[in-house]
Amino acid sequence: MSKPVDAGLRRTLKIGAGLALASAFPLVRAQKKYDTGATDTEIKLGNLSPYSGPASAYGTCGKSMAAYFSQLNAAGGVNGRKINFLTLDDAYNPAKSVEQTRKLVEQDEVLLMFAALGTSHNMAVQRYLNAKKIPQLFVNTGATRFGDPKANPWTMGWQPTYQAEGRMYAKHILQTKPNAKIGVLMQNDDFGKDYMKGLVDGLGDKAKTHIVQHLTYEVTDPTIDSQLVTLKSAGCDVFVSITTPKFAAQAIRKAAELGWKPEHYLVSVSQSMTSVLKPAGFENAVGVISSTYLLTPSDPAAAGNKDVAAYLAAMKQYHPSGDPDDSLNAIGYSVAATMAQVLRQCGDNLTRENVMKQAASLNFVPPMLYPGIEVKTSADDFFPIEKKILQRFNGKAYEAMGQVMAA
Q1: Is residue 306 within 8 Å of residue 44, measured between CB atoms?
Q2: Angstrom distance (rounded) from CA 96 to CA 121
Q3: Is the separation of the CB atoms in 311 and 327 below 8 Å?
Q4: Contact status, residue 162 vs residue 144, Cβ threshold 8 Å
Q5: What is the count of structural domains for the chain?
Q6: Distance linking the first and last C-alpha atoms of the chain
Q7: Assuming Cys at both sites, which of 109, 180, 200, 382 could form a disulfide with 147, CB separation 3.0 to 4.6 Å?
Q8: Which pLDDT belongs to residue 30?
């Protein structure tokens, strides 16, 4: 038979049990979940940008991402955590992209890879990151393959796809020049091929008759002068330039030297006034048609926009050498804001699985997007931005052509 418990001891036991329960509940409420790269105070993001090499003009994009995160950290970060943005140079070399991605994942132990630039470069690490179940988020390329959640559930693009953009140009050509003789200059890689597919698909059964010259160049080539001579000699009255900044600038300048004045379509990744049009000569770029989903401060649509004011402040303080009117800087700032929104939605559940879940649950308008364009995703839609607007360069700035449309 058990002995009766002393009344004082009974009270002590009750108090002790009550304290234990009281302390247990806050622990449950405050439970946090982390994967490698996230702590109570920090979130590590890995990034690759070409700060050197043949596409170094794109390096400013990485610097504007850093500017956004510096501005964000100065305001307290995300849910009390500072962003540790680790950005490395891969020199626009896929082999280097593999090496640097492995370093960021295996040595620096980032939570995820964010906005690494380049089509072939992201392709080179896509299988590796998906096998390790590490988010490859908002890749800085419009290649269509980065929006396939069934084949690659840990990879998501951000900007409108190259194929969609190519179809937009094809549609405009058919509407405005039904008898066009099209000449195409294309970078000979996956970036170029994706744009070309969109153009051909958009032209449909007229592609074979309208495209009279289709020339390529290698990213290591010194110039594309000979290709421009060939395109002019073929009598092309429409020129589609599927080029990265260095070669886009060369093409604009060489066309002017040759006195060749086709209707000139320039892919949006090389529309930068700072890195492309200025070195080519603004006077030579008058009439160039491109497309955008972004605002720049010089655009009339940016007047009075508070987000643009915050962008200008961040650029002035954290990336003073960068031109705010360079669309590449607007891209970096806007995609960084999208990443911050994902992390904000994660709350205290900073597992890689939850990061992908939140990335696939966006309905958000980040700063610097053109009015009427937003970021939307779902579990089966990994294409966050799907609208654009055509624009034409007038010698000083780009002017919108028509209305925002589904790309």
Answers
A1: no
A2: 8
A3: no
A4: yes
A5: 2
A6: 82
A7: 382
A8: 53
Establish if 105 belongs to a structural domain. Answer: yes
* CATH at 367: 3.40.50.2300
Q: Containing domain of residue 224, as a range?
A: 162-292
Q: Which residue has the tokens 């096998």?
A: 131
Question: Residue 27: pLDDT band by 50, 70, 90 thresholds?
Answer: very low
Asked whether residue 150 falls in the same domain as residue 46, the answer is yes
Residues 89 and 114 in one domain: yes
The structure tokens listed for 145 are: 């393959």
Q: Are residues 85 and 147 in the same domain?
A: yes
For residue 88, being part of any structural domain is answered with yes
**Mean pLDDT, residues 399-403:** 92
Residues 68 and 84 in one domain: yes
Q: Are 353 and 97 in contact (CB under 8 A)?
A: no
Gap between the Cα atoms of 231 and 146, Å rounded: 32
Q: Quick one: tokens of 51?
A: 């700060």
Q: What is the pLDDT of residue 406?
A: 87
Query: Between the CA of residue 26 and those of 20, 21, 30, 34, what are the distances in Å?
Result: 11, 9, 6, 18
Q: How far apart are CA 132 and CA 29, in angstroms?
A: 30
In this structure, what are the phi and psi dihedrals at residue 131, rounded to the nearest 5 degrees? -65, -35
Rounded to an integer, what distance in angstroms lies between the CA atom of residue 113 and that of residue 87? Answer: 10
